[in-house]
Write a structure and sequence with these properties.
The first copy, chain A, is an alpha/beta fold. The first copy, chain A, has 14 helices and 9 strands. The longest helix of chain A has 23 residues. At the A-B interface, strand 1, strand 2, helix 7 and helix 8 of A face strand 1, strand 2, helix 7 and helix 8 of B. Chains A, B: InterPro entries: ADH_Fe/GldA (IPR001670), ADH_Fe_C (IPR056798), ADH_Fe_CS (IPR018211), BDH-like (IPR044731). Chains A, B: This is Alcohol dehydrogenase.
Chain lengths: 395, 395
């Protein structure tokens, strides 16, 4: 293990903490660009409560509404123009992963004179990583991406049908304010997709990281076990605040770097899913639910021991004389059954996706994180034929 | 769960990373007070390598040597005077927990005009928490206290025989540079005491935290399991770099806040041990090895279910028809047997401590972390009679 770890985000966590937004924001600015999504925060009254808290603390608000799911670079351009025009000195994201990701890139785009798409890795020769951004505060209303406490963002470009990411230290939120009460109204399907997203963040490192990370293995298993137990409860009863609380906490630790420290993870399942949702407006977590088990069955053949450990520690399975691969496959079956049990799709057809564009998805998936042979990084690395085969197995 | 989390320390981890000290320091200052302990860093050549790296990067060095185990406030005063006199703009700690803790308080004392002992909580009316400190860089040479990546420090006052602590945001090191190669020469007994310290950091929160922290439970269990497995190896073969690496990583995550987030832990075992080592110059980890199992047997009676979980998840024990308390007690026996197996003392007599001062230890243990009745905070809170009984059970 040889690595660096850094995460300076201050986390304020717990039911009822939304009322502290103004106080937290006031330490970082006076005029906030308040970035929001499709309108649910207005319907639930959360938007008004956030504005009240901000204004009471002396922070004025300029609203940038309408960030779409799979947020577009066009929204980033619009938000950055607005922040510049209005002289905002702070960006507050109030919404799900899409809203938070857009807000982060907006905060950096304010200081960048070129096209913000330059900052999103898409195979370009000069990837312009941002080094400066307005202070960012995240207020998640959905437990899923973990974007609230990390320095990454995923942005889509509809013109070229590419969905990709940026990671940079300046994108760490100054404050993440996570109030599980805000997630009580998340619909059942979105709740389930969030749970799948959480688990997939952790399985990526668990299955694609380096060897010799015993503590991180245990951390990952702990997040998965908890996300499954409380995720099931949150899907069954959206008003279960204890379940919402544990799922939200799981979503944060699943991708704030704690589970990944030293693991040197890559994210093939995410890369494949991004290729799908660049072309089809499917919820990210639903796409992952289809891709992850299919990918696992492919990867288990190369590393049955690791997947057998997953079967044992997460599902309590015993070998009972079977070999690692057989045990591994039962673990994957159990995982897929869990996803179905909470209402996630596990076939491409359920997402309305056919086989027409499979070669294109395979091409796009390896656009950024690829080795010198053009294979998608992972354990094992995947050729385009491998990616196509995995996707066909999930039709 | 309702909590705040913040830890802005940048961690550079891995074998061979000592060579990056200069580069890391140069970002934070030009003239370093290099704080060291008893001389082992000189004998091993680590001191020279650190100085070379610093000077090569353009950071000049003023040495503050001779920080003792259970570091004294007198050393803090001396270090702060030296840093002021020499105009240091940076403090680098090269050593174990004692050296790092002293260095932290020195860094704050530079800006404090009163006596630095005011900053250490010892029951005084006005506890002066520091708000400003020179930038701190920690380079641990021992895997134990986890001080390298947190904002706490423990300091002893020999005049009044009190050992206590301070925690403040300004004491977070800017950089923790953890190179497991530096721990290869740690003697067997110190290695074992370090392993006990690591495990005890985690058991404190596990047994004294709030209910409803399932992820943190799993994290804690993961740290304990890993510290036991690799700790045993590191004690058996000090040159086992893989074991040293995992133990060092365990020591960092055991007390950088990741395991404690949301747990709202208090530390009765540490408070009792501090009372002992304020009067007797015993290694902190050795004192913990005596106090922790004795405390566990006391606390298990109040919360058998929790200790039964520990027995099941850490030692793989099955109830086999027994009740929780019986299972719990077997888990504690196993834990104590583990400590003995790596060479830790588990009786006060092995530390050369008799029963003469037991009432005084009980008094001192509840000096700072006490409830309104003067009981030592924990689950359950401990009266002075409880503390005395626990200590007598360990004679």
């Amino acid at each position: 293990m040889k690595f660096e770890f850094y995460n300076p985000t201050r986390l304020i966590f717990g039911a009822g903490t939304l009322s502290r937004l103004g106080e937290a924001a006031r330490e970082h600015g006076r005029k906030a660009l308040l970035v929001t999504g499709g309108g649910s925060v207005k319907r639930t009254g959360v938007f008004d409560r956030a504005v009240t808290s901000l204004e009471k603390a002396g922070v004025s608000v300029v609203e940038c509404a309408g960030i779409e799911p799979n947020p577009r670079i066009t929204s980033v351009r619009r938000g950055a123009d607005m922040a510049r025009r209005e002289g905002c000195d702070l960006v507050v994201a109030l919404g799900g992963g899409s809203t938070m990701d857009a807000a982060k890139v907006i905060a950096a785009a304010v200081f960048y004179e070129g096209d913000p798409w330059d900052m999103i890795g898409h195979g370009q020769e000069n990837w312009v990583l941002p080094t400066r951004a307005l202070p960012i505060i995240t207020v998640p209303t959905l437990a899923a991406t973990g974007s609230e406490m990390n320095c990454g963002a995923v942005i889509s470009n509809d013109e070229v049908k590419v969905k990709s990411f940026v990671k940079a230290d300046c994108l760490f939120p100054r404050v993440a304010l996570a109030d599980p009460e805000l997630t009580l109204t998340v619909p059942r399907d979105q709740t389930a997709y969030g749970v799948c997203d959480i688990i997939t963040h952790v399985t990526e490192g668990y299955f694609n990281g380096v060897d010799g990370t015993p503590i991180q293995d245990r951390f990952a298993e702990g997040v998965i076990l908890t996300a499954m137990e409380y995720g099931r409860r949150a899907v069954a009863d959206g008003g279960d605040l204890e379940a919402r609380t544990q799922v939200q906490w799981a979503s944060i630790v699943a991708l704030n770097g704690w589970v990944q420290a030293g693991v040197d993870a890559v994210h093939p399942v995410h890369m494949i899913e991004h290729a799908l949702s660049a072309h089809h407006d499917v919820p990210h977590g639903a796409g992952l639910a289809v891709v992850n088990p299919a990918w696992m069955r492919f990867a288990a053949k190369a590393r049955p021991q690791r997947f057998a450990q997953f079967a044992r520690r997460v599902f309590g399975l015993q070998a009972d004389g079977r070999g690692d691969l057989e045990l591994a496959m039962e673990g994957i079956d159990r995982f897929e059954a869990f996803l179905r049990s909470i209402g996630c799709p596990t076939r491409l057809s359920e997402l309305g996706i056919g086989d027409e564009l499979i070669p294109r998805y395979a091409e796009d998936a390896a656009l950024v994180l690829r080795d010198e042979h053009g294979n998608l990084l992972g354990r094992p690395p995947m050729s385009k034929a491998d990616i196509e085969a995995v996707l066909r197995s999930a039709l």
